[in-house]
TrEMBL record:
The lineage of its organism: Bacteria, Pseudomonadati, Bacteroidota, Sphingobacteriia, Sphingobacteriales. This is DUF6443 domain-containing protein. Pfam families: DUF4951, DUF6443. It comes from the Bacteria. Coiled coil: none annotated. Signal peptide: none annotated. Residues 2-122 form the DUF6443 domain.
Amino acid sequence: MTTISYTDGLGRPLQTVQRQASPGGKDIVQAFSYDELGRERNRYLPFALTTTTGYGAYVANAHSVGVYNFYNPSPVPSPVQSQQGNGIVRTPKPLSVTGFEASPLNRVVEQGAPGEAWQLPDAGSPNSPWHTVKTDYSANDQSTFTSAISPNNKGSHLVSRYKAEILANGTRQLSLPGTYGTGQLSITISKDENWKPAEGCVGIVEEYKDKNGHVVLKRLYNKIKDGFNIDVAEMLSTYYVYDDLGNLAFVLPPKANPDAGMPTQAILDDLCYQYRYDARNRLTQKKLPGKGWEFFVYNKLDQVVMTQDANQRNKTPQEWLFTKYDVQGRVVITGIYPHPNSSGDSNISTPSTAVLTWLQDYSDQQTNLWESRTTANTTPGYTNVATPQGVVSAYLSINYYDDYNIAAKPANYAAPAGASSRTQGLLTCTRTGILGSATRMLWSFTYYDDDGHAIKTYEQHNLGGNTPNYNNYDAVTTTYNFNDAVTSTTREHFTISNAGFPQLTVANTYLYDHMGRKLSNWQQMKYRTMAADTKTLLSKIEYNEIGQVRIKHIGSTDSTNYLQNVTHTYNERGWLRGATTNDNLYNLDLRYNAPDNGIGPQYNGNIAQMEYFGKNGLNRGFRYSYDALNRLLKAQSNSGLMDETLSYDKGGNITKLNRTGQPYGELSYYYNNSNQTNQLATVLGAGFTTRGYSYDANGNSKTNGEGKFISYNVLNLPSTVTQGGSTLASYTYAANGEKLRNVSAADGTWDYIGGIIYQNGAIKFIQTEEGRAMPNGTGLYKYQYDLKDHLGNTRSTFQESAGIADVIQEDDYYAFGLRQLIKDNSSDNRYLYNGKELQADLQNQYDYGARFYDPVIGRWGSVDPLAEISRRWTTYGYAENNPIRNIDPDGMVVTDAYGNQHSESAEEAQQMFRKFKSEHDGDGPGDGWLKKLIAYFHIGRSQPRSTEEAREGAQLKEDLGVIKAAGDKWEKGIDDDVEYVPLVSGAWKMSKGMDKNDNKMFFGGLASGMIDGFGGFIGPEMKSFKIGEEIIQWGKGPEGGKQTIALLESLTKEGVEAMKTRGLEKRRVLEMLEQYIGSTNRPRVMNAKNSNLKPRIELLEKILKLWD
């Protein structure tokens, strides 16, 4: 990979060329140009040369001729959105234009994008009529809100001045002494590509900051119908209230109606976010809407050692989740501690803090702060001197580092040839508890090579559901190429019934092109000692010259004849435009800004129209309309048989859902406390059995609405489903969130082992990258392939029959996932909507990993584990009410249709539109470089089309340092409220895990992901000076997110001293701080001030402040 950068006399990049980097071996060129003030006003798309003989040479007129010839070669056909023969979209405008403020500040006021529809024809204005992203800057005043829609209605800039008083007992008391004076707050005003000047404030997003840099208000404007069916504007405000020490104390979402006056205590408890801190500014209590209070206990190093939620507090004795560390600050043990002589406390709003206070006082007196390894052949294999030292009712996880000298290590899990002894600092073994058992745990070993690659892993499984047996395990051998890409995996699946040889062997081989783009995935099965099955090519991928997937070939044994070829097309912005199969098994057509049938165009990435065709009568067309908050209002089907119409309250809770073609016609939703909560009370409808709901102290729905009662485990995942005294289903989970077993009274026993699914003790199927493999009873397997839409919904399932593709299942869905079966002859494929498993015992809810989703009512059954990412909306809403564009890969983090997200604020947009700095040039325009450029231009598909692409998309987000916060808009990090930043990044690690077809939730993935949660591309540096070693383990276990919150918010001098004793040098802190501050000038989708870098910079500054 050879990269050549050409610069001008001022050191600015003029052109970057990567030699023969395209799939066809042609040079890829990125041209730069500057205006008279040195600003990069025009930003061009990368392009490939027409020959393979460029050899990295400078390309004359690249930005004025070359890029245009590539994207709009002569002769020009009509329409301009048509695809060229090489799979590149044709556009006469392969550039985005930036409009700058006419001032020395050079602030961005308008930003276009590639394609004629998104061009900026003039100098730029925050009030232009073009389909661009616009930004304005202002200050607050005393203007009040009026609902009349007109060009002159700019909304209200009157801001209530909430305060949080610190009381003697450490609680925070909310008050409202008045409003902010004129000019006391700065405002950034954002308008997306759909904004219309004639509608004034409708569609505008405002962010208000005080003089300390705190975000105190985020305000949005919507358009609704009033009582006379007249369009009026609606103002939705989210207030952030800080105490005198700058700690976030309250968040008041729109449904709390904070503009109308001081919320009552009942409103605070049901709809708002509340935080309390101790004298050292450590978060000690937290309450989220719909949940009871959560408590936190710390040791002297400010490490979280115990946490408790409301369900645990309601038990007698009260339970606490505990965490223990080693001398390096790494998590070694997590478990459940029952506090002696304590009684259950069922008070959700005002629980007693007596036990919390006693435990914190006790922890403050302890001098032993970590555990050490022992040689005793007992669980857990560590000392028991740190808090708590009492009786443990269950171990959730035990981690071993640095070596494999573990006394109780099973002999089966021996080191392979080539295993390295250089494992200092690496996680070598984990024991994971099985929830519901005090003693049952599963072993996991990882062996590395000298480069730190995991070359062999052993994972004990729980087939049969009894006491774990050492002979029940999977052994996976992995090989890598010099670019660290996986080239092969061999999985040997052992069971106690076949000691000495595998029950099943699954071997995968991966091929890549010269730039590291994945080309193919071969798979071969072997049953026991029988001869291996025929090697099958699951998929082969062809790319166009800028690296977009052009054709995906599916299902072959000779790499020549394929069961299906799926051709993808894109629009100018890289959004998926269509996918067609050669046999018309499933063809998809997505339209954004150019729909037909009279529906309004969407310029911001919302899908205006979708059509799809398939076999067996699957022929649908839909038109979609949205409100100014990008929530789906109406889905109109061509047939009129699958229409949906919706309305919402200020919190995003559905209030009405009308469907055609189903017995769920017109549904009305009623919420508890006179609709002043996010929790459902009843759902009513003509011809619809009334559904009633109740919730536990953690906000989990205790009923499915139809008489089935649900109990939950410590992870807030379903444990049992009962009705009329009978158990209909019971679920078994590992402590890391992985579903191990489901025993169903009607459906038998299902065991889940990393994608190998058993039913009643026999293998039912094996999940693959493209679908699943079904045993045929003779020791061989027959592959079934899934064709999915842009959201990952399984639409058509086919298999080989007489050399051709035979469709065996077709599914259709309403907008919010309610299934319409077209054909089913597939041995019951249950992985359907978003590729998630249907739960027959719960009226066809879907298991997303972190939560279960009910498509009948379009809501989750539990509170979002990462609700703090987007505090404006209900904690039970699905995909931010835009299920046509958005998905929720694991039930925690909403992702929109792009590989990258538009920012919510103008300040973030500022950073997005800055030119590449010289330190970025050295990255080279390779595959990663090209992906960054594509993302830099807001180019990305309208959702991953496969689990493989979802994982690649997640990796791209990490490469860019972009953490997708929520739906269509960014929930930016609040300056002094950074507790959720690592949660988001860790969640992306979990999302990647969830994209694997193994039902793993990867709570433990927070541990490996936390290093990125602490800073995108700065993870390696953090790790190098030991903070990373502490952070990387901080997310281990189900309470990992809570622990991370505490670390970022409560670093003290004692904590810094502990870091120094573990090798942290001041020189390194200064180097990193300089590096990160320099990195804030990089062109990032998220502004560093509110992205991962901002809290990292603040942390380093705090470390320096506390150093001496």
